[in-house]
Amino acid sequence: xxxxxxxxxxxxFPKESDMEIVQGSITLKVPEGSSDVVLLKNLYLSCDPFxxxxxxxxTPMQVGLLYSPGSPLLGFGVSKVIESGHENYKKGDLxxxxxxxxxxxxxxxxxxxxxxxxxxxxxxxYTGILGMPGMTAYGGFFExxxxxxxxxxxxxxxxxxxxxxxxxxxxxxxxxxxxxxGTQEKVNILKDKLGFDEAFNYKEEPDLDAALKRYFPEGxxxxxxxxxxxxxxxxxxxxxxxxxxPVCGMISQYNLTQKExxxxxxxLFYKEIxxxxxxxxxxxxxxxxxxxxxxxxxREGKIAYVEDIVEGIESGxxxxxxxxxxxxxxxxxxxxxxx
Length: 339
Ligand code: NDP
What we know:
CATH class of the largest domain: Alpha Beta
Shape: globular
Helix content: 10-25%
Order of helices and strands: EEEHEEEEHEHEHEHEHEHEHEHE
Mean pLDDT: 97
Low-confidence stretches: none
InterPro entries: ADH-like_C, ADH_N_2, GroES-like_sf, MDR_fam, NAD(P)-bd_dom_sf
Largest sheet: 7 strands, mixed
Domain Alcohol dehydrogenase-like C-terminal: 161-294
Pfam families: ADH_N_2, ADH_zinc_N
Bound molecules: NADPH dihydro-nicotinamide-adenine-dinucleotide phosphate
Number of helices: 9
Number of domains: 2
Structural class: alpha/beta
Domain Oxidoreductase N-terminal: 2-112
CATH superfamily of the largest domain: Medium-chain alcohol dehydrogenases, catalytic domain
Keywords: Oxidoreductase
C-alpha cells in the first residue's frame, strides 16, 4: 500500500521533499466489529490548494482535517468500496469524499461524502466538476455572487478547477465574464474553449488596475476571488455599487509567511460591497440540485471541463506543489487505478 506522507510541516513554498512515498502495509479487510469503517481502493486523488494550508503547523483552516508529520496526506478522492462495515455502503460502490493519499484506505464512513450514482460521465469528474470544486463554484457563484443576467463578472485563477466552472456558470447566466490566468495558452483556452468573453495573463500586466479598467470600463459586479493579494487590491478599485465578492480562496498568500497587505478595503463601504468567505461544505445540501443542473449540461456538451491527469501515486507530490506555480492546466488529478 504505497502512501504519500507529510515529512515535515511546511513554511514557505512546498517542495517535493516535504513529502515522501512510503511503502506501507494494509490488511485488505475491515476489522471485526467495525460497523463504521469502510475499506476503499482509491482510484483518483485530487490535488487541491487547501492541502498546503493544512501543511502549516497550527493551521488556521477549520475544516475538521489535520495533517501531522509521519502520516499520510488527506485529500479528496474517488474510490471504490472493497469492503464495508457500514450498512450504507457495499462492495463495488463508487464514492467520493475525503481519503488518505494511499492506494487503499480504511476510513470512517463520515469521510465518504457522496455515493456516485451517475457513471456515464468520466469518474475523474467527481474530483472536479461533479465533486468538491464543482460545488465550490456553484455555491460560491450562485448563492453568494447572486448573479443576474448582464452582470459583469471577473474570475481569477480562471483556468483552474473552480475558476473554469465559475466562468461557464456566468455565461449560462448571460453575464459578461473575464478571467485572468498565468500563461497565454491558458488565456487562449479560456476564450476559445470555455466561452469567456475576455481573458488576460495577469503576469504580463504591470498595472492590474489599468487592465481591469480596460476590460470593465463600467466596473465589476461580481468578483469571484481565488487569489487575493494584489489582484484583490486592484479589483476593489473597480467594483460597482452593491458588488459582491465571494471569497473562495487566496492562493497567492498560502506560501507567504508575511501575508501581503490589502489597501483598498474602504471601497467595501464606499460602494456597499458584500465580501463573504465560505467553505464548500456549507453548500453540500445543494448537491442533488447541483447534479440536476450540471449533468445535462455536461451530457449535451454545453459545459466543458479541462483536466490535467498524472499517473501513479509517485507523481502526487510534484503534482500538488505544481499548483503553486501554475503548472496545472485545469483540474489536477493523480490517477491510481481506473477500476
Ligand atoms: P486551481 O486548479 O486553480 O490551481 C491553482 C491555480 O492558481 C494555479 O494553476 C495557478 O494558475 C494559480 N496560482 C498559483 N499561484 C498563484 C499566485 N501567486 N497568484 C495568482 N494565481 C496563482 O485550483 P482550484 O481551482 O482548486 O482552487 C482555486 C481557489 O479556490 C484556491 O484559492 C483554493 O484554495 C480555493 N478553493 C476554496 C474552496 C472553499 O471551500 N472555499 C474549495 C476549493 C478551492 P495560473 O497559471 O493562472 O497562475
